[in-house]
Fold this protein.
Amino acid sequence: MQVRLSTFRSAQFRCPFNHDDAEDCLLKHGTYMRYADAHSNSMVAIPRRLCKFTGKTLSILPDEMLPYWQLPVPQLEDHFQRQCSAAEEQSEQPPKPTNTELPQRAWKRFCSAARLQSLTEYFGQRFPFGECPKGLWQAMMRTGGTLSDILCELAQAGKSLLGDYRCLRPSGM
Ligand SMILES: [Zn+2]
């Protein structure tokens, strides 16, 4: 399982693997190397923790990485902003010609009925927005937090931008 560093460091973070005794169960468990993103040759060392009760491992990603997606967070944010501004203000910058496949897949996922429903359930009580992905994204960005903050908050609620992972759900929920 993968979490971003800010999620791991937040005060509310608990071991995500369901078991009764959740105190201090995550032991340091070395690192592994992975590519910084899908188009990069640079490698990043990812620290791991091992839950001593379940034997499951947790990978702690740098904040610019998205769990389960080889797509850097700033690239996702940039692409999503473009999707939302294009219709309204005749996009001034031409889209970057390269490497848009993954961001496009991420946007498509974000626009899926399942994502909209899940995120609307979470954010809908806090701010109104139309039943469209652009409205949802713009409303999320207006909360004042950075995308990193929003990702951290979603993770604590057992949700994420692009998919809710069952194993992310904190115990007791
Ligand atoms: Zn544990």
About this structure: Residues 2-68 form one domain. The chain has two domains: 2-68, 73-153. The first strand starts at residue 2 and ends at 4. The pocket of zinc ion is lined by residues 15, 17, 19, 22, 25-26, 51, 53-54 (CB under 6 Å).
